[in-house]
Design a protein that fits this description.
Elements lengths: L30 H8 L8 E4 L6 H8 L3 E4 L4 H11 L4 H20 L19 H17 L5 H18 L2 E2 L6 E2 L8 H6 L2 H17 L6 E3 L2
Parallel strand pairs: 1-2, 2-5
Antiparallel strand pairs: 3-4
Length: 225
């Protein structure tokens, strides 16, 4: 049950332009809920325990407020996501993220796109059309190729951008508890899409959002494997 006027306490209260919105997974509670709870504690030596970190909302709120936290989750992907959201990224990490992003775009623009990586999903054609899947495949293939030559922080930023792109391009509705598929729709601007791949345009938008909010210094969370 959702209380009246409590929408800001759900995932909808987490702005897409901040670290909270780097990768939204439903269901999730918002930064406002955690902040309201922490207001009841004035101890400067407070340490918050969250044994079910999920997408890392609690750990990120604590990091922003300079509060130490211990957290974990049974899901290794969620642990990685929470760690990536609370991690500290240097100027060099962000600069490398920008350079790698440009290289990925150039490689896709000048090469023939082929599908070399496909998620093991039943009836995957319901998730992405053939062109979208091929472009996503090319992006993650090139991320994997350069991963050993970049820092783990830069790699995390690239993979965050990729995961967000995958979700945003999927023919799936995440606006409610039960997931549903949407029908493939023809492009709104077919002539424009002949000039530049719309998936690449969306990648650029996601890159700028993540870059803008990655420069804040956090890293006060401790993660248990």
């Amino acid at each position: 049950m959702v209380l009246k006027n409590s929408e800001h306490l759900t995932y909808k209260g987490n702005l897409k332009q901040t670290r909270y919105g780097w990768l939204r997974l439903t269901p999730a509670y918002s930064v406002h809920l955690v902040s309201d709870i922490l207001k009841n504690y004035k101890d400067k030596n407070l340490v918050v325990l969250d044994p079910f970190c999920g997408t890392g909302t609690t750990a990120l709120v604590c990091a922003e407020q300079g509060i130490e936290s211990d957290t974990t989750d049974i899901n290794p992907f969620l642990r990685w996501l929470a760690y990536a959201k609370t991690n500290s990224y240097s100027v060099e990490d962000i600069r490398a993220f920008e350079e790698c992003s440009h290289v990925l775009v150039e490689k896709i623009s000048i090469s023939q796109i082929e599908t070399s990586w496909v998620p093991p999903l039943h009836q995957i054609e319901k998730w992405w059309d053939e062109k979208t899947l091929a472009t996503l495949s090319s992006i993650i293939k090139n991320i994997n190729l350069i991963e050993n030559s970049i820092s783990s922080q830069t790699s995390s930023l690239l993979k965050l951008a990729f995961c967000r792109l995958m979700i945003e391009r999927a023919n799936v509705s995440f606006g409610h508890q039960s997931m549903s598929f949407q029908k493939n729709t023809p492009p709104k601007y077919p002539l424009l899409e002949m000039l530049e791949n719309p998936i690449i345009l969306q990648w650029k938008e996601i890159f700028h959002i993540i870059k803008q909010s990655a420069s804040s210094y956090y890293s006060t969370a401790r993660f248990s494997l």
